[in-house]
Specification:
Layout: H1 2-25, H2 39-51, H3 57-74, H4 79-103, H5 121-139, H6 142-149, H7 154-183, H8 200-223, H9 231-243, H10 246-265, H11 277-332, E1 336-341, E2 346-349, H12 351-357, E3 375-376, H13 389-394, E4 399-408, E5 411-424, E6 431-438, H14 440-479, H15 486-518, E7 524-526, H16 528-545, E8 552-555, E9 561-563, H17 565-581, E10 590-598, E11 601-608, H18 639-649, E12 654-659, E13 664-672
Parallel strand pairs: 8-10
Antiparallel strand pairs: 1-2, 1-6, 3-4, 4-5, 5-6, 7-9, 10-11, 11-13, 12-13
Helix pairs in contact: 1-2, 1-3, 2-4, 2-7, 3-4, 4-5, 4-6, 5-7, 5-11, 7-10, 7-11, 8-9, 8-10, 9-11, 10-11, 14-15, 15-18, 16-17, 17-18
């Protein structure tokens, strides 16, 4: 079936070639040997363009030679001349194919049938050049053989080149579009498919073009036959090319060309007045070539401009969408981003930048100089304008993670910023992007951790040194030649055990401190009354085991809270433990626990009769390693700092004050309240 279909395609094009060849022979100007138009050259181009360089090329070439010989022989060219003209037709189409394969691959071979056609203005020039070169190559065989048999006339060669080139330029794009239409006939999206009708205005304009073209032809070639005004008809070519697609423009060219040729052959129009037949043929062919080229160039140029405009519109929409997305991303960032140009003016700034460096009052953002923001080094010294990160970036340097302190009327307390600045490439004038990151809390925590590490090292070394020293003393006592003193050895062991307990307590508190800092908070409703009573029973039992006075702990009705149970128990145990521990010698601990609800918070108060906290240390007791009573009471100074961290992680606060009723201390802390009925 494929072979039959392929042979049918070759037969179809061969038949079209013969018909258009006979039609072309009807346009021979009297007293000449060449036709005014030769559409067969365009048909041959469409034929070989749609089949391409395949194994059927030899079959198509043979069919073209036979068809060309038959046309010329049937019209009186003679056997020898007909064979020369057939060879010329084959050379022409093969030369055209070789050039278009390289210059315009969408017009030759596999892509020729996909309907792409001419889409760029440059392709019109390439097609014209390929057609002219191919026609010139064929002229060396066709007209040259005829001239050698008759007379020498360069006009014949010129006419041959022009008419064949015009036939290719006009017929090839139109034929490829028609071939694509036939291949897709009845397919989805093809001619038989439902499609949107052209607008009424465009249909009316096409009808107007047809009427004006017919009227102009009648005026130029019938009414004013002696006036040389054929250029008026070019106005309709401009109209067709500048307003319609290439298919319509090429069809207009074919119809106008047919009308001009027919009227000229009947002795009408300005071209019929040229006495010399060869000159008349060359002039008509040149006119038709210019009209075809003008129409096609305008139509393809319009198509390319429309496609370019569509791409620009699409690109503009994409750019706008991307700009909107970038703006949304910048606005949602916690880090500040600012773009500054070479003059120091702010080109772009996100809300976080305004918050971090301060939104200073002024006539406009651009009118505020960088020095007004109060940027200093972390040690408080000023920064020279040339040392500012933005100035260094504008000079081409990449600045990474420079700490600057900012304080201005909008940020009276100041904050520490980590600043990076990078020059933006390919910007005119030069610009730089500056990124601000608030590191106030990070640097404070880093400093606290450094101090914390120093204190931990010191507090761990002290009991370790004690253990080491008393262990050596005990070893010396055992190694002495005299009998060891049991009381002295017991003393050494007691000192070692006490130092070990201090080290154990410190390590336990460090673990608790780490847990309070890192444990994930998953708040759940907690029965605060039950938890406090359970911790109180544990404290009372521990005091009895140690032989001390059992504390009196009164627990009132307590509202439920939302908290992490493990951490909340740590808070309650720490506070009750302090109230039990920090009492005067011989005094029985008395502790009262009460709470009340305040909107969405529960205020928990623990009052004791202990030794109290000096008034100037009510806030400092929550600092890491701070101890209000270092003498006579064991401790690491971490307990209340752990409590504060846990409470703050729950969104609450804690304060210490005097218990004026007993002389002890009142600890008051807030925690999120659970909903009624929970817990």
């Amino acid at each position: 079936m494929t072979v039959l279909r392929r042979l049918g395609t070759s037969a179809l094009f061969a038949t079209l070639f013969v018909l258009t060849g006979l039609l072309g022979r009807l346009t021979v100007v009297p007293d000449t040997t060449l036709a005014l138009v030769w559409p067969a050259s365009g048909v041959a181009a469409v034929w070989f363009a749609t089949t391409g360089w395949t194994r059927w090329l030899a079959v198509d070439a043979a069919a073209l030679v036979v068809a060309s010989w038959a046309v010329n022989d049937a019209t009186g060219a003679g056997t020898d001349l007909a064979l020369g003209l057939a060879a010329a037709a084959l050379v022409q189409v093969l030369t055209l194919g070789a050039l278009l394969t390289r210059w315009c691959p969408q017009l030759w071979g596999p892509r020729a049938s996909d309907g792409t056609g001419l889409t760029r203005f440059v392709d019109v020039g390439r097609l014209l050049a390929a057609a002219a070169l191919a026609s010139s190559a064929s002229a060396l065989l066709g007209p040259a053989s005829a001239l050698s048999l008759t007379r020498s006339d360069e006009l014949v060669l010129g006419s041959w080149v022009v008419r064949n080139a015009v036939g290719i330029v006009v017929i090839l794009p139109l034929g490829l579009m028609a071939w694509h239409w036939l291949l897709n006939l009845g397919a989805d999206g093809g001619p038989d498919s439902a499609r949107t009708r052209p607008p009424l205005a465009r249909t009316a304009e096409l009808a107007a073009l047809a009427l004006v073209t017919a009227a102009t032809c009648w005026l130029v070639f019938a009414v004013n036959r002696d006036l040389p005004v054929p250029f008026l008809l070019l106005a309709t070519s401009v109209w067709a090319g500048s307003r319609f697609r290439p298919a319509v423009a090429a069809s207009h060219t074919v119809l106008v060309g047919a009308a001009v040729v027919a009227l000229t052959l009947h002795g009408l129009g300005p071209f019929s007045g040229i006495a010399e037949g060869d000159q008349r043929a060359l002039v008509v062919q040149t006119y038709l070539g210019l009209a075809a080229l003008l129409t096609l160039a305008l139509a393809v140029g319009r198509l390319e401009t429309t496609a370019l405009t569509a791409r620009l519109t699409h690109s503009e929409r994409q750019a706008t969408s991307q700009a909107t997305l970038v703006r949304a991303i910048l606005d949602s960032m916690a880090d500040g981003v600012t773009v500054v140009d070479a003059a120091g003016q702010v080109v772009l700034r996100n809300p976080a930048a305004s918050l971090l460096v301060g939104d200073l009052p002024g006539d406009s953002l651009e009118s505020i100089p960088p020095s007004a923001y109060g940027l200093l080094r972390p040690d408080g010294t000023s920064v020279a304008p040339t040392e500012m990160p933005v100035a260094r970036a504008l000079a081409g340097e990449r600045v990474v993670d420079v700490d600057l302190f900012v304080r201005n009327p909008a940020i009276p307390d100041g904050r520490l910023l980590e600043v990076s600045a990078t020059p933006l490439p390919d910007t005119d004038p030069p610009s730089a992007v500056v990124v601000f990151h608030d590191v106030t809390a990070d640097r404070r925590e880093r400093d606290e951790l450094a101090s914390f590490a120093g204190v931990v090292a010191h507090d761990l070394l002290n009991p370790l040194t004690t253990v080491e020293g008393w262990s050596e003393a005990l070893a010396d006592e055992i190694a002495a030649p005299e009998p060891p003193d049991p009381d002295l050895q017991a003393h050494h062991l007691d000192r070692i055990q006490r130092a070990a307990r201090r080290m154990r307590d410190l390590i336990n508190d460090l673990l608790a401190y780490t847990t309070a800092r890192d444990l994930k908070i998953n708040p759940v409703p907690v029965d605060l009354t039950a938890m406090v009573e359970d911790v109180a029973r544990g404290r009372a039992e521990a005091s009895r085991v140690k032989g001390g006075q059992s504390p009196v702990i009164t627990v009132g009705p307590l509202p439920p809270v939302l908290a992490e149970p493990v951490l909340l128990r740590q808070v309650v145990d720490n506070l009750l433990g302090n109230s039990v521990k920090y009492v005067a010698p011989g005094v029985r601990p008395e502790i009262e626990v009460s709470a009340h609800r305040d909107d969405d918070l529960v205020v928990l108060e623990i009052r004791d009769n202990g030794i109290g906290i000096p008034a100037d240390q009510h806030a400092r007791v929550f600092d890491t390693f701070h101890r209000a009573h270092a003498e006579g009471y064991r401790g690491t100074g971490l307990g209340l700092s752990i409590v504060k961290r846990i409470v703050e992680r729950h969104g609450g606060s804690i304060t210490a004050s005097d218990n004026h009723a007993t002389g002890g201390t009142t600890m008051a802390l807030t925690l999120p309240a659970a909903a009624t009925g929970e817990g």
